[in-house]
Design a protein that fits this description.
Elements (H helix, E strand, L loop, with lengths): L2 H8 L24 H25 L3 E8 L5 H8 L8 E5 L5 H4 L5 H4 L8 E5 L8 H4 L5 H20 L2 E9 L2 H13 L10 H7 L1 H15 L6 E5 L3 H17 L19
Parallel strand pairs: 1-3, 1-4, 2-3, 4-5
Helix pairs in contact: 2-11, 3-11
The chain binds adenosine monophosphate and magnesium ion (MG).
Magnesium ion binds next to loops.
Length: about 270
């Protein structure tokens, strides 16, 4: 598995009309091996990610923003748990975006988002994001059409500004199909430890599957840019999803050409009594 293969298969080129029916959520073609081998490969990448994150933190120069979006049960939480397993929590932050509070609603929709973006040396993972404002908001008509229609361009401009000011942005849409969602929601009902993840409202959202897919297609078609690309990650197989995302993160961080800060002079002569 290498970056070029992944980019060719899963990265959405700017201004490309996306039809999600043509993207196989069960694809695992960029890796030549089974689940066991895939998990081993992901573990190796995870160790590499630990070191790269430490370097990012130590250098204190770059900022990395990772956006995760998916349908309910699409695997956002599992991705964060697995891909960042063992990574030093200092310097890595997860920002989860729920239904906006009254205070957040009193501001423009990017207000709460901007506050959570990474500073130098930081990695921030968005568990849901500003894209909810053209997804759930669009599907449920929470604002007028002309208001959400404008937001695609606003989002592109917002991300461009972040990128030009030194933020590396990666956006992952975890692509599952409706059968897979059914299985995962059913598991949340069947397994007591998972009950807390089930909300009755999830069924109403599931009934809106086609509307959500259309809203995602608009997002992917209109907001993937060179500076802030979308990747459509086949996510029916959790091991493959984790592997592809880990590989993209490692390749991206390696591409940043980071260095540990210059050590103070004369360290070699120091004797600690
Ligand atoms: P969960 O991720 O399962 O905790 O659910 C969070 C809920 O908040 C989801 O149903 C999202 O669609 C919803 N949500 C997130 N952002 C927004 C937003 N900007 N407007 C309305 N609902 C939102
Ligand atoms: Mg939920």
């Amino acid at each position: 598995m290498n970056n070029r293969t992944i980019d060719n298969r899963y990265r959405v080129p700017p201004k490309t009309k996306i039809d999600l029916d043509k993207w196989d959520p069960a694809d695992h073609s960029a890796f030549d091996g089974d689940k066991d081998a895939g998990e081993k490969a992901a573990n190796k990448l995870n160790k590499r990610l630990e070191s790269l994150q430490e370097l990012l933190y130590a250098e204190g120069k770059h900022k990395l923003l990772i956006v995760l979006q998916a349908m309910d049960a699409g695997g956002k939480d599992g991705t964060i748990r697995h891909v960042f397993d063992g990574v030093n929590p200092q310097g890595v932050k997860v920002a989860s975006f729920k239904q906006p509070t009254p205070e957040e609603l009193a501001h423009d929709y990017l207000w709460r988002i901007h506050k959570q973006t990474p500073g130098r040396g930081e990695i921030v993972i968005f568990n849901r994001s500003h894209y909810e404002d053209v997804l759930v908001v669009r599907v449920h008509n929470l604002v007028a059409k002309d208001v959400w229609q404008r937001r695609y361009d606003q989002i592109v401009a917002f991300e461009k500004r972040l990128a030009e000011e030194g933020t590396t942005i990666l956006k992952f849409y975890l692509h599952i199909d409706k059968d897979e969602q059914k299985e995962r929601l059913q598991a949340r009902l069947d397994e007591p430890d998972k009950n807390w993840k089930f909300a009755k409202g999830d069924l109403a959202e599931r009934a809106l599957w086609p509307q959500y897919q259309a809203a995602y297609e608009a997002v992917l078609s209109r907001t993937s840019t060179e500076l802030a690309p979308w990747y459509i990650i086949p996510a029916n197989r959790k091991w493959y999803r984790n592997l592809v995302i880990s590989q993209i993160l490692v390749d991206t961080l390696e591409g940043l050409d980071m260095h540990f800060p210059q050590a103070e002079e004369g360290l070699a002569e120091i004797v600690i009594e």
